[in-house]
Request: fold
Amino acid sequence: MSYSATITDPHEADAMPMWESFGHADVDAALQAAQTYIHATQPGDRIVAEGQGVYAVWTGPAPSTRVATVVIAPADDHPCRARPQDGAPPCSPPSPLRSRARLVESPEMTTVFVATVRTAVEYTAVAHTAERAARLACGKGMEYLQSVHGDLGYDDPMLVGKYFGVDVIPFEVGGPAQETRRSTLLAP
Reply:
């Protein structure tokens, strides 16, 4: 019997999980793995229990923003995952958040999207959808511009992509080698 830990975006219910870890011996080990990952990537974030294996992840001190949800659930080999007709013991109902997370399998090939926005500094992001990759790259570009210029007068990162342009290309992971060329418009 094993448990998994999944970190999802609380604002995009259908998005792919942001992080997953499988094969933990118990709930505490799965939660510890998620806490270790979160504190390694965002040391100031707080993890708050919501109940039944669901935890909210909040940014540092107030005013805080909810940035993720952690779900600890039995893996497919757990008796609670067995079909009732197999004589499995009754279990508590699954968390409603669990149904939103999808298992990430390792197919031979998968397509991701690579987005690049070029301000004075070039930012690149990779995601499972073109829109998410563009939003991530534009968000980093906006952070840079705000650090240099202060308040930009807008808060939608996609406006950075609209002004500077954002290139999004599909990339097949596990496929043949792929090469892209940089635009000569920005070359010195």
Observations:
- The beta strands are 3-8, 19-24, 46-51, 54-58, 66-74, 110-118, 122-127, 166-173.
- Residues 78-107, 182-188 have pLDDT under 50 and may be disordered.
